[in-house]
Amino acid sequence: MASKGEKTRADIVDSARRLFYEHGYDGTSFTQIVDATGLFRGNIYHYFKTKDEILAAVVERYLDDYAMLLERWEREHVEPRARLRAFVDMIAGHKAELVEYGCPIGSLNTELGKDRRELQHAARKLFDLFRTWLTMRFAEMGYENEADALALHLLGRAQGIAVISQVYRDKNLLEREAGRLKEWIDRM
User: Fold this and answer.
1) pLDDT tens-digit profile of 157-172?
2) DSSP string, 146-169
3) What is the DSSP letter of 141?
4) With a threshold of 0.85, does the pTM exceed it?
């Protein structure tokens, strides 16, 4: 069971994660994070001195959550192709959020990559996690020599689907393109 302090820290990270996703990192102020948590500013300073420190904790939370998700897919799906399909299903399963706000890790990396390279380097770890996992799945399917290129191709298509679906606010587009990704995987 988490201590009160661990729970408070987790609540701050959860609030910031939602705000960063919905409004962007630059579009979220420290005051908005304070307001969203319902805590006093001084209480938040006990855990985080800056918004950048909060971002680092948000990235770590994403990494932990996605690592657990990948481990779950490993347990649930024996075949690498089924694991790749689970990745695509994740995209389609979050269509409402993706159409409204885009991909949380894609949007964050894009925003930070413009003028906050030092912060984007940490956020890139989120893509690296998926890239490595996808590369291993393609290698398991016998594509050892091109596994990384295929992983990047799948990541790129997934990000493109998220962006275009958000631009056009079109859930059907997202579902249709996710279906095409699964067809591509099945033909491999």
Assistant:
1) 999 999 999 999 999 9
2) GHHHHHHHHHHHHHHHHHHHHHHT
3) T
4) yes
